[in-house]
Amino acid sequence: MKIPSSSSFTLQGGDASFENRQKALFNGLSQAERACNVIQPVSDYPDLAVEHFRRPPPPGKRRRTETRQFKGQESIFKRPELPSPFADKNIPDYLRNPHKWAKYSLADISNEDMSDMNNTQAALSFLNGLRARRLKEHAINMEIEESPTISKVTFKKPWGGGPRALVIQDEKEKPVFRGSKIVLPEYVIGQRTMKKGRKEKPLEKFDRNKQLKLQHLEEEEDQ
């Protein structure tokens, strides 16, 4: 706070001695103020100027303003370049998997050996070797088929009857009433019973002479 000077603040009233003391007091205060440098101009404190008291920008905007000075310059932090997934497809398989391939060299073969006549002879010899191998295999198969020691294995359909014997039940074996008890026929566990089929009755032959003749009734109805 600025202390008022003797010219700006005065007390009215009193005699001449009071006014002199008042002036002497304010003069002493002004001298003490200049000696202690209590009051300094605003230009000595630029940070306290009114124009510097502003609301700080938000975090995102502050970051943009801080990095604006580096705009257009090459960054020292670069993303590592990953290998392209299509790069391996351009590499042939004999370079990616050399263990799957066999390398042949024609350095020890002369030009005469690679002529058409020599190639034809090599192809014919290869075919003759295959033909001889097939004939040999066919002869071995014929010997195996004709040898009597080797017996063929035959497969038969299994019979599902089992060792159980069939027991034919007699029609006479029926429950019998003896005294005050009913005696049932004997039954063996594990044996199946087979019932006899009914006998077909023979057709009876009729004598045509003994048959009744009713043709005269039909004649009467027609009349």
TrEMBL record:
Principal place of residence: cytoplasm
Which family is this sequence assigned to? Belongs to the TSSC4 family.
* Annotated transmembrane regions: none
- Keywords per UniProt: Cytoplasm, mRNA processing, mRNA splicing, Nucleus, Spliceosome
Provide the species name: Fopius arisanus
Q: Name one GO biological process term.
A: mRNA processing
Disordered: annotated span: 194-223
Q: Where is the composition biased (Basic and acidic residues)?
A: 200-210
**Function text:** Protein associated with the U5 snRNP, during its maturation and its post-splicing recycling and which is required for spliceosomal tri-snRNP complex assembly in the nucleus. Has a molecular sequestering activity and transiently hinders SNRNP200 binding sites for constitutive splicing factors that intervene later during the assembly of the spliceosome and splicing. Together with its molecular sequestering activity, may also function as a molecular adapter and placeholder, coordinating the assembly of the U5 snRNP and its association with the U4/U6 di-snRNP.
Annotated Gene Ontology cellular components are: cytoplasm; spliceosomal complex
| Pfam families referenced in this protein's UniProt entry, alphabetically | TSSC4
Query: What protein name does the entry list?
Result: U5 small nuclear ribonucleoprotein TSSC4
Gene that encodes the chain: tssc4
InterPro entries under this entry? Answer: TSSC4
- Localization annotation: Cytoplasm; Nucleus
Task: List, alphabetically, the PANTHER family matched.
Answer: TUMOR SUPPRESSING SUBTRANSFERABLE CANDIDATE 4 TSSC4, U5 SMALL NUCLEAR RIBONUCLEOPROTEIN TSSC4
